[in-house]
Batch of 4 targets.
Target 1
Amino acid sequence: MSGKPRLTYLNGRGRMEPIRWLLAAAGVEFEEVYLETKEQYDKLIKDGFLLFQQVPLVEIDGMKMVQTRAILSYIAGKYNLYGKDLKERALIDMYVEGIADLMQMILMFPFSPPDAKEKNIDSIKERATNRYFPVFEKVLKQHGQDFLVGNKFSWADVQLMEAILAVEEKVPAVLAGFPQLQVFKTKMSNMPTIKKFLQPGSPRKPPPDAHYVETVLKVFKK
């Protein structure tokens, strides 16, 4: 397949959003197909498009790729956002995995019962401020560089920027005690490709609402 990558998922963030972020940061335009019914999803499975019967699905370079982590690794490698050697790649992997653990809490948040939402926001804040953000604050302070790994823009920077903005939606003052991350956020926001992605009308999706949750439950119901 030539041309733009084609992304198949729901019209919302979910597990596709980090893929949208990474493609956008690399300056790659893409097309999207939105699943709205269980029948569409079942047809993808029946037609053999989904290796493990799961989306996201990304069609790129003649491949039908599934599994978020595999897709992200491929895109990062293809667009030179994955470090210069194995050691840098290992660092990027560690940072990305850590960020993914934090993002998992945010991913599940819209599906939590109303009476648990406040408690879950407290948990996100606690994890972000005590476990995850201190790591990146320390890394940036220690090496005094603009980026997390090898003084070069990488997949890890993109994931961290996405996570910062996602946590800020729930806890607006979360960066109050992290001056390095505040500077990092400003620099990332002004990178041309990311700046473009943050503008209204870009492929970036809004925070999940009740309609998105309803669609997820409808498409993936057993």
Target 2
Amino acid sequence: MASVASPVIFKEFCPLYYLLNAIPTKVQKGFRSIVVYLTALDTNGDYIAVGSSIGMLYLYCRHLNQMKKYNFEGKCESITFVKLLSCFDDLVAVGTASGRVAVFQLVSSLPGRNKQLRRFDVAGIHKSSITALAWSPNGMKLFSGDDKGKIVYSALDLDQGICNSSLVLEEPSSIVQLDYNQKVLLVSTLQRTVLFYTEEKSVKQVGTQPRK
């Protein structure tokens, strides 16, 4: 007689109240009280990054139990995607609802690491909401995708403080996921998945049938 599988029970093992309590539920803008919504999340062994509807990035350091805040200058707009990377320096990329992309190079207390917070901007290419971000393992390349199907490649020189960006691919539907490894960018859209070979600048579709 076949045994009956026991039902799967989902359980929240560790409510992150220490994290949530460090993020305000409302902020004051002039005479208005604005509710803060949490809109994006990424984690690694060192940090928990949380994007918000007020354009503020909340970055929690897991080793020091400290919360830091980073924001964009100018218009207050919702953060739609965040992506952390730990390489020689700790980096976090942030995308917004209007298509702004920024990279924050974080301060480290370790010898030989970055001692001053720096920000790099991917300017003027995306015009719509950022839906995906992907790093190369060494932090020298960042790929960003938006809901109009544009994919932008940004080359970062952290030593010189330079970020050069260019449009590398346009898909007919929204980008939903990006992943990069060894000169190949995996691109998933609402309609299909392709492999983009960054050296040859060629595209190979995964599968033959479009998504419905």
Target 3
Amino acid sequence: VRSIKSLYLHHNFPPWYQFVTAAFCHATWNHLSSNLFFFYTFGKLVEEEEGNCGLWLSYIFSGAAANFVPWLILPKNAVSVGAAGAVFGLFAISVLVKMSWDRRKVLEVLILDELVVEKAAQAPAGTSGTFIGGYSVQSINHIAILSGALFGVFLNKALNLREKRDKTL
């Protein structure tokens, strides 16, 4: 659908909103379903700890950060879509939130880690250098995934510092 493609992150002079909207667009049904599965899994854990508003803010900011870094690094003819960076931001937040010495929480973190490692091992490797219609095609944007996860760590640390400051006041 032509109007949907205007929401993709086009790396040459994108409008600001494409950094966010690209995290809600997907290339295939398989792409959408795998991201929905991980969004449900990690989003549920983040929502339990941070609430509905915290979940959506974490998703949106992780998605925007995950799209910003590849925009700086990848060629200007690239196009980015997908929620993997935002979902990995939620993954990082959920793992850090669940980290404690409570046996149940440690087990949850180990299961989550196993799911992510297994899914990443099954994913096809990126095919950089392939061009379709003038755009570089890469099946997995590893830069976005890493950026989203790192931003999730940053966001978790920032929220924890704010909570500690609020408790001392």
Target 4
Amino acid sequence: HFRFVVFHPFLEEILIGKIKYCSQEGVHVTMGFFDDILIPPESLQQPAKFDEAEQVWLWEYETEEGAHDLYMDQGEEIRFRVADEVFVDTSPTGPATATPDTPAQPGQSTAPPAQESGDKKQAPYTLIGTICESGLGLLSWWNS
């Protein structure tokens, strides 16, 4: 006997998570039990820019008094809308077959060459979020 929980939010659903970290790819969000959530730069409140020194995204919010930089710091709670989902087949593949014209010598490995370290392990299920609507983004932006 076993039990399991299925996490599959519907498109356009609004969820709340925490910022795990920021990168040039966008804002990476975690829900504690699920970490593969990305809010890409084009889906952030605009105008947005990435601060290389701080490694955070910020929203340049305009008011009558001028522009204010609202930082998206790690650990902050963020409300986002599910815009898309990405499924990647991560099933294991069979071993590579040795080429018939080069038989293996005694003591020589027939294993395929190691993957280059640049290869990135992909998540089987990723959510793509958006915060470019009023009321979405850091909860602290909308509390007052």
